[in-house]
Amino acid sequence: MKEQNLNEQTKNILATRRDFFKYAASMAGTGAMMALAWPMAATAKLASNAGTEPLTPVTSGGKEWKPNWGHYSAAPKHNPRSMPGIGDRVHEFDMAISVEKHEIVPKVVVSGFTFNKTIPGPEIRIFEGEWVKVHLKNNTDDFHTIHWHGIQVPCEMDGVPLGTQWPVGPGETFTYLFRAQPAGTHFYHCHQMTPLHIQAGLFGSLIVESKDDPVMNTFGYSREYTMILSEIDTNYVRDELNRMLKEMGIMGKMNKSPSLMGEMNGLMMGQFKNRKEFVKAVKRGYIPPYVHSKHGAPNVSVPNFFLINGKAYPMTEELQIRRGETIRVRLIGAGTEPHFMHLHGHDFWHVCQDGHPLPQPIRLNTVPVYPGGTTDIVIQGTNPGHWHFHDHSDKATTNNGHFPGGMMTMLAYEDAEAAGFKFHPVVAVDS
């Protein structure tokens, strides 16, 4: 049956994704089923083919468009829509998404989405201007993409589901191809159902190195660390993943039956051709999912664990340093909350923001790291000891409400004892 023949009661039943799957479960044996905006089989075909065809360069009058913005140009060094030439090296990476168990701290294990079975996903490190090809394989029952946060990619490679590509369906693959630019600290993450998928673990660092790094030229650091800051509401992630698995199980059954996959439309999934069509649907009786009075209380995320590289204190890794040494720390705000990283006993130099070197380093002891932002600092080994480095937002230094925990680690001098510091820090999980 087609959508226009449904009565108003049935339209309301089908108004949201969650309600649709409830309806689908009840109708699975009757054959009276409507279709999604993109049936799984069609999505699979699109996902497999997309990302493999040559990109079309942007032209104007037969010539590449090259405006002159002078000193303040934010244009990429290389045309994002170009393709690798003869002799260009292409770095290939295989990235598989799967559901795995992940331990935040002892006795707190969550099921999460992972890139290559780790949280965070593997770090990608490459020089500016080199080519990157990533083969994404979806081994879950949900849909996924990869967004290359801070990277100037061609639009088709940006990883926005239904905006730049079809989301990659269960069992399907997608190939991303882009040139690594600009240099600096960046990251990648899934952009499908972002509030859930990032909390559930789908993020990782992407470091684009410069062959003429101004930070190295100025400070001469000897080692570096990457710290990805994020939060998780373990109850929200558990409940939403369980709901997703249930819904996608229904979808999988539907996909095996042509009689159930015949006439699907975007109304059931809250998807519309454009804004005008959305407004028309509302006038005809469609009830958007954000109208809580019609669809029940929302499942709002309230983080209860705060993580550095997927772990909470005391399981976070220490930063190691020696007297007279200089280290670089790349801070990545992968979550939804701002964090204010404070180092005891030292000032440090804020040297880069969102990958770009600052015109002048700034001397600080506390630096904000905002959602989606990256901040690079340089620490100099000037004061031997074992020093706390933590978020100064008090709630972020707790584990499920208990202090100490969360977004906390140590700057540990390897030669602290030789310098006269004799106290050995104690690991505490309760105050």
Describe the structure.
This protein is α+β, with helices and mostly antiparallel strands and 431 residues long. It folds into three domains: 3-34 and 235-295, no CATH class; 83-208, Cupredoxins -  blue copper proteins (Immunoglobulin-like), CATH 2.60.40.420; 305-413, Cupredoxins -  blue copper proteins (Immunoglobulin-like), CATH 2.60.40.420. It has helices at 8-13, 17-27, 40-49, 194-199, 214-219, 234-255, 275-283, 292-295; strands at 90-105, 108-115, 124-127, 131-138, 147-149, 173-179, 184-189, 203-209, 223-232, 305-308, 319-321, 326-333, 339-343, 348-353, 356-364, 366-369, 374-380, 386-391, 408-413. Strands 10-9-12-17-14-15 form a six-stranded mixed beta sheet. β1 and β2 form a beta hairpin. The longest helix is centred in the middle third of the chain and has 22 residues, at 234-255. It is globular, with a radius of gyration of 25 Å. The termini are far apart. Residues 1-17 and 20-53 have low confidence and may be disordered.
